[in-house]
Amino acid sequence: MTLRLDYRTLIEPVTERARRDPDRPSVVLIGEDGSEETVSAAQFLANAADYAAVLRAAGIRPRDIVIVVMRHSAEDYADEARPWR
């Protein structure tokens, strides 16, 4: 495995991974009951893109400060990536 350190944004490695290996797990969420939900690289990127579109529609632009308050779920992990998209 080669570690790249030349990414310009936090979303670039996520995008690259989703294109290279879309079905590869990116996040495994473990519920309070012990259940597991796996989020693929493609799912993670698609969710982040959806949220980014909502932010853009609300007038949020690159380099704007966005505060994210969240609980732990699959949707919320995609929320974390949206400001960098």
Q: What this model shows, in words?
A:
There is one protein chain. By secondary structure, the protein is α+β, with helices and mostly antiparallel strands. It has one domain. The chain has a two-stranded antiparallel ribbon. Helix 1 packs across helix 2 and helix 2 packs across helix 3. The longest helix is centred in the middle third of the chain and has 17 residues. It starts with 10 loop residues before the first helix and ends with a helix. The relative contact order is 0.19.
What's this entry about, in short?
The protein has 85 residues and is an alpha+beta fold. It has helices at 11-20, 41-57, 74-81, and strands at residues 25-30, 36-40. Helix content is 41%, strand content 13%.
Major β-sheet strand ordering: 1-2
Strand % is 5-15%
> Order of SSEs, N→C?
HEEHH
Specify the biggest β-sheet: 2 strands, antiparallel
Cα separation of the termini: 25 Å
Based on secondary structure, the structural category is: alpha+beta
Shape: globular
- Fraction of helical residues: 40-55%
Poorly predicted segments: none
Q: Work out the count of structural domains.
A: 1
Radius of gyration: 14 Å
Mean pLDDT: 81
What's the β-strand tally? 2
Tally the helices: 3
Write the layout of secondary structure elements.
Blueprint: H1 11-20, E1 25-30, E2 36-40, H2 41-57, H3 74-81
Antiparallel strand pairs: 1-2
Helix pairs in contact: 1-2, 2-3
List keywords for this structure.
85 residues; 13% strand; single chain; alpha+beta
